[in-house]
Structure formats: C-alpha cells, structure tokens
Amino acid sequence: xxxxxxLTLVLVxxxxxxxxxxxxxxEAKAGQSSVLNNNLLGLPPVPIPAxxxxxxxxxxxxxxxxxxxxxxxxxxxxxxxCHNETRAFTDGLPVSVGHHGLTGTRNAPTVLNAAYxxxxxxxxxxxxxxxxxxxxxxxxxxxxLADHKQVIDIIRADPEYLARFKSVFKVDAKKLTIxxxxxxxxxxxxxxxxxxxxxxxxxxxxxxDAMTAAQIRxxxxxxxxxxxxxxxxxxxxxxxxxxxxxHNIGIGxxxxxxxxxxxxxxxxxxxTKGDNVDAMVLTDKKTSELGRFAVTDELRQIGxxxxxxxxxxxxxxxxxxxxxxxxxxEVMIHYNNGGVNDAKDPVNDFLSGGIRxxxxxxxxxxxxxxxxxxxxxxRINYPTSAQAAx
Length: 390
Ligand code: HEC
Ligand code: HEC
Fold this sequence. Notes:
Helices cover 39% and strands 1% of the residues. It has 390 residues and is mainly alpha-helical. It has a two-stranded antiparallel ribbon. Helix 4 (129-137) crosses helix 7 (178-189). The site of one heme C has 28 residues, from helix 3, helix 4 and helix 11. One heme C (HEC) binds next to helix 14.
C-alpha cells in the first residue's frame, strides 16, 4: 500500500513538473482559457474581473487589436510596436517612439504579468488593464488619435471587426464603445503570463541544480544584505517581484531638483483645469519626473515610481522609468551607491528610506546580476503566432 502511495506521489510530481516545463508561454491564447488556472511555477492564478470574463473569441479579438497598426493616426503604430513579443513585450529603447518618430518620456514596461499589477503605468495612474488600454490610443506621442470616436470609426469601417465584436459582446456597430475595445485587449493581455524560471524551480521545487553557484550567491544577497526583496517581493507560494507600491529610488530626479516647486504648481493647475494628465506626463520630460505625485498630489511621493517586476529583466533593458540605466550592472551600482548613479552625487530630498549604501563588493554586484538572469522564463525569446500577424 505504501509503495502505491509513493508511486502515485512520484507520478503526480513528475506530471506537475512536465506540465510546468512544457507549458506554452505566450502561445497560450485562443481556445486555452485554462490559462486562468495556469500551472506556471511561481505564479498565482490570474485575477479576472467579474465584468470581463475571458473567452477564446474575446482573447483572439484582443490579440488582433493589440497588433493592429490601423488604430493610429498614420497607420504605423500598434501596441506591439512598443510591447514587442520578441523583446519580452518591450521595445528595447530608453523611451518609446510613437507615430512620426515622436518620443515619449518613459521606458516601455513589459506587458508580461501586467495582469497581476495592482495598478498600471509607472505612476499607477490607471487601476486596471481595461483603463490602461484606452490611453495609448489617444496619447499624442503614441497612437496619436484625436479621441476615442476615431478609434471606433476605424473599427466600424471593417466588417470583419464588426462581426467579431458582435459575436463576442453582442453589440452592433451603433452600440460599440471604447470600453468593448479595452475589454478585448485586456483579456488578451491576461494570457501574457510567464513563470517557471530557473529561480522558480530552485525555490518552489527545491531543485538545487536549477541555479548556478553565482546565481545562488546573488539570491542570498537579494534577500539579505541587498534588501532587494523588501520591494521586489517573494512570497511562500509565489513571486511577483513587486510590492505594487511606489518608491523614490533616485532615478531621474536629480536632473529636475531645482524645478520642482515650479513643476508641482504647474501640474496642479493643469489638473484642476481638467487637462489630460496622461499626455502631460508622457510629453513633458520634467513633469514626468514627478512620478506618483501626479496621481496622489502628495509631495512625499515626488519621484516615486512603481516597483517593476524583475521577471525576464535580463531581456527588457534599458532600465528604470526613464530608461536611463543601460545594463543590470549599472542598476546594481546605483543601489550600492545608495540611490545615486555616481557615488559623489548628493541623494535627492525625497529618497525612499529603504535605499541606503549597501557596501557590496564588485564580485557581489556581479552575483546579483547573475541572479537576475535566473528570472528568465523558458521560451520567452520565441516569436509567436501573434508575431506573424504583425
Ligand atoms: C509608443 C509606444 C507605446 C505604444 C504604442 C503603447 N505603449 Fe504601452 N506603454 C508604453 C510606455 C512608455 C508605458 C509607460 C508609460 C507610463 O508609465 O507613464 C506603457 C505602459 C503600458 C502598460 C502598463 C504596464 C505596467 O507595468 O504598468 C500596459 C499594460 C501597456 N502599456 C499596454 C499597452 C497597450 C494595450 C497598448 C495599445 C492599445 C499600448 N500599451 C501601446 C509605450 C507604448
Ligand atoms: C525601496 C524599494 C526598492 C528596493 C529596496 C529595491 N528596488 Fe529595485 N526598483 C524599485 C523601484 C521603485 C524601481 C523603479 C524605479 C524607477 O524607475 O524610478 C526599481 C527598479 C529596479 C530594476 C529595473 C527594472 C526595470 O524593468 O527597469 C532592477 C533590475 C531592480 N530594481 C533590481 C533591484 C535589486 C537587485 C535590488 C537590491 C539590490 C533592488 N532592486 C532593491 C524598488 C526597489
């Protein structure tokens, strides 16, 4: 009897391991709503809002919208321009480039695992994926459309789109709104999840051979002397590597120190007038540096940005909200200096209390960098079917 129980256990473990190993990454889309209860090691189930349940057709529609360049002022910009699957859903640029080569002020974060974010954008100004998806379409330096009516007009002109919206949402052309568009895109994004990295196999499956010696040393620093885990969180059964909170870790802010009183005043005035805040932070470099303050109006949150996930971070450079750090080594040096790029620079007035000099040696910084590469998910580099449609 004991042997049978043991055998069953081994088989179950083997099966779970196999599942985790072979689970398709970004291909998990149409027809695979099981992705909701994903078996990806290190990740919880994807939260799905009650008013936007997943369905294979909706996910496929969102996929098409995500890759559709027609939804832009000059027909050249789709979401995938800046969130490109071949670059782990980023664009590899310091700050993003929209229509007619216009540049924004911020680095494109990955969309992978954005389904778990407790708020969207570097400053968290949108609560969810649905709210987020509406913004780039009418952002003057991204898709550049004048308003959401233009988005709907483009969709209404395409009978195939109309048929698909009708079958997914039961709406006809007249009743179609931007909310339907946003819901479809968000559903697609909820399938873009990655886990099962060497770190996950090491930490959650106890496979000591899953990480190299340098990666293991880096992990020890990450949870120890580096205090990284206080913001890039790891829990008992999951690791999202973000606390979902906002911290000023000394990026970009030193450049605008003198301008802060003026920027704060101008921003609050514009907000009171009802100006488009999304446009302001993505078109004015200095205003962008106000960070979370732009959402909460709280002075102590000046220069605070959302803790990003570190999954696949080796593939998503350059780094930070302004793309100012090119390599992971530069990131580690910044932390080791206690929140300044150059150890001789003064720290800014709003720096998080959690950022202090770490006194790590150069080989220790290299170990931290090595640990970052243990967070790559398998198969992340492979182009997907969605890529072919691009
Ligand atoms: C021109 C480049 C560009 C285009 C086009 C673009 N984005 Fe982004 N995306 C960005 C940048 C830059 C940010 C960060 C902006 C900020 O935080 O203020 C961002 C942020 C996001 C986030 C938030 C992720 C996080 O971790 O907070 C999501 C989700 C997202 N974009 C999805 C989309 C979708 C969906 C579309 C198409 C409707 C789209 N993006 C079009 C550049 C782009
Ligand atoms: C006080 C909270 C906090 C601590 C502690 C912290 N981080 Fe961060 N981390 C952040 C925030 C916030 C950002 C984004 C900052 C910005 O862009 O202004 C960030 C960004 C990063 C990035 C860039 C990610 C990207 O996609 O651009 C890496 C890599 C990183 N942190 C690794 C680490 C490591 C390694 C440690 C420990 C040595 C650490 N962090 C400690 C909050 C923290």
